[in-house]
Amino acid sequence: MRRLSALLVLLLLVACAGAPRKPPPAPQEGGGLYAPHIQDRGPAEPPDLSGLQEPEPRREPLARYGNRSPYTVLGRSYRVMADPRGHVERGIASWYGEKFHGRATSSMEPYDMYAFTAAHKTLPLPTYARVTNLENGRSIVLRINDRGPFKDDRIIDLSYAAAVRLDVHRKGTARVEVKVLEEGVPLPATTASAAPPPPPAAAAVRSGPAVVQVGSFADKDNARDLARRLRDADLRDVHLDAARVDGRRVWRVRLGPFRNASAAQTWLQRVLALGHAAARIIHEP
User: Fold this and answer.
1) Bridge-partner residues for 180, per DSSP?
2) Does domain 71-189 have CATH number 2.40.40.10?
């Protein structure tokens, strides 16, 4: 009887070992570039972005990071375009938002969901392009400073602000046209180090106190992290400034104040050289 019981137990163990395992749950689809399983989102109420200006296309040096070619993601290899001039493509756009706000992009610039930027798999970083929503005709100029989206059916990942401007944020995706702007193609690598980005055209003619704003964040910890990195780079008078923008509390990372825009220009150029391309001079009242 004992032998029979032992045999039955052995047969049960073998049966359990051979039974098919239940597959793991499928990952949730989100807007993330490198983490598609993370559910992404935007603010509960879209902010008023009517006053947010589109970036002005200019020839910047190639970003130090994010331009290695070829590179591999999820087992697939991609080659960065050597010359994107005249490039036009059509396909599906998606967007990414709060889950990545403040995190480093492929070019090592902090992702700002309230700036007009985007991610692309093969355009050099940074590149300026005009993106048009083919479903409603809305168009925007944005700066491509990140890699992705790594899905076969998508050609570009828009920042949350760009998605709102193009009315893509509600549906999640839309068919778009991406057209590279001639004046927004990066400088060749051989001349990049010798050609710093030009200062804003209006900076020299304005007077009065000014600050250099490097970034704006909804998360105070992200703002503190950026401020710390700026101080580590020996930048002076770095501080956080709390403000309300479109009814939301934000933390702005700023340098200064300086007596005028001309005095702020030197520090703006240092910030731009560190890769913080969204930095700009703000005139205080």
Assistant:
1) 129
2) yes
Say how far apart CA 124 and CA 138 lie, in whole Å.
Answer: 24
- pLDDT score at 35: 43
**For the chain, what's the residue count?**
285
Domain ranges in the chain?
A: 71-189, 196-283
CA distances from 117 to 106, 207, 213, 285 (A): 13, 30, 17, 28
Could you give the dihedral angle defined by the CA atoms of residues 96, 68, 72 and 91, in that order, rounded to the nearest 10 degrees?
Answer: 50
Range 166-181 burial, b when 16+ CB lie within 10 A, else e: bebbeeebbebbbbbe
Residue 133, pLDDT above cutoff 50: yes
Tell me phi and psi for residue 190, to 5 degrees: -70, -20
Q: Which residues are paired to 213 by β-bridges?
A: 254, 280
DSSP 32-96: -SS-TTSPP---SS----TTPPPPPP--PBPPSSS--SSEEETTEEE---S--TT-EEEEEEEEE
Dihedral sign, CA of 132, 98, 125, 150? negative
- Mean pLDDT: which of 14-18, 25-29, 264-268 is highest? 264-268
The superfamily in CATH containing domain 196-283 is: Sporulation related repeat (3.30.70.1070)
pLDDT for 223-266, tens place per residue? Answer: 888 888 888 888 878 999 888 765 678 888 999 898 888 888 88
Residue 273 DSSP symbol: H
In this structure, what are the phi and psi dihedrals at residue 31, rounded to the nearest 5 degrees? -90, 5
ω into 70 cis (within 30 of 0):
yes
Report the predicted TM-score, pTM, of the whole model to 2 decimal places.
Answer: 0.57
Rounded distance, CA 129 to CA 123, Å?
Answer: 10
Phi-psi region of 234 (alpha: psi -120 to 50; beta: other; left: phi over 0): left
